[in-house]
């Protein structure tokens, strides 16, 4: 049986792999604390659930337009104006089954064979794999904790070649928690002005989980806006990961291209989800604000707990719900049975010894770091980090 060579071009998401390993241990009756997964541990807001129930009762059960219902796209337009002071038309919006699909649509719509896509590290696992999927070339630009894991204008400039097709980043960033300020985006914008053919894919899915102030989109620069593809969705900000609703805002040519791709893959996303999404996007944001406040509390607690562990160094996240400590101080250490050679060994050691799941940094293009989520209760966070502390103390 010969499968497609496409499968050799990209990898399974490490995040999902770790979650699977955690579930397997749990199935054996082991109490595993999951610090690997990237989703809010909150319920979807009540008014959103009610809108979905009403949609079922009102028989919203048919195929939907490929880019989404017009009033959903109008709700996205309203949100972009309200939250980001950005003006779009509904024809520029394409709703999808999640930010992941929106990213796939965007990358497939603009990337040709060997086109270069610049991605600052660390980046969300799926970015590089989607570029490979589209037969593009990933150009990683290493950032560091010293620069707050952000790419500088000089680094960006140096990475651009005649083959550069796009720049792809997230702010707030998964996994580092970096949030680009208006000044930092202004500096990057200046570089993009010198290179008018480069697209900018701006993943803003963690917009509402921001600890340092107002969210800034790179689409705010009027002279760049036409080549920015904003990717956003409801998964993180409204605790709706399973509902599957993402969207893009772009120029109409790119929007039509993405609609064409989606029209031959998934069609329009779930009708019920779309009705609920209108309630989320235009309704009360208090539940999202409450959730962000709780993440702030947990971030503080996690940083206290990590601070008690010798050898773990970690910068404070500015957004999202992860910490991304550097673990290289543990390389070469052993508990007598296992020797830690890299962050993958570190992550597996914690899973097998402390029964805490995390994700190794190599998956995000930063091989010396490990991602730990704090989208879990304070109780589980404290229990998990106490176990991690004990397990690491055994490494000599
Ligand atoms: N972008 C980033 C940075 C993410 O972390 C995630 C989810 N982990 C996504 C996109 C995908 O989100 P969705 O559930 O909307 O597909």
TrEMBL record:
Biological process annotations from GO: amino acid metabolic process
CDD domains in UniProt: AAT_like
InterPro entries: Aminotransferase_I/II_large, AspAT/PAT-like, NHTrfase_class1_PyrdxlP-BS, PyrdxlP-dep_Trfase, PyrdxlP-dep_Trfase_major, PyrdxlP-dep_Trfase_small
Aminotransferase class I/classII large domain residues: 31-387
Molecular function GO labels: pyridoxal phosphate binding; transaminase activity
Coiled coil regions in record: none
EC assignment: 2.6.1.-
Cofactor requirement: pyridoxal 5'-phosphate
Pfam family, one: Aminotran_1_2
Keyword annotations of the record: Aminotransferase, Pyridoxal phosphate, Transferase
SUPFAM superfamilies attached to this UniProt entry: PLP-dependent transferases
Family according to the record: Belongs to the class-I pyridoxal-phosphate-dependent aminotransferase family.
Name the record gives this protein: Aminotransferase
Organism of this sequence: Arachidicoccus rhizosphaerae
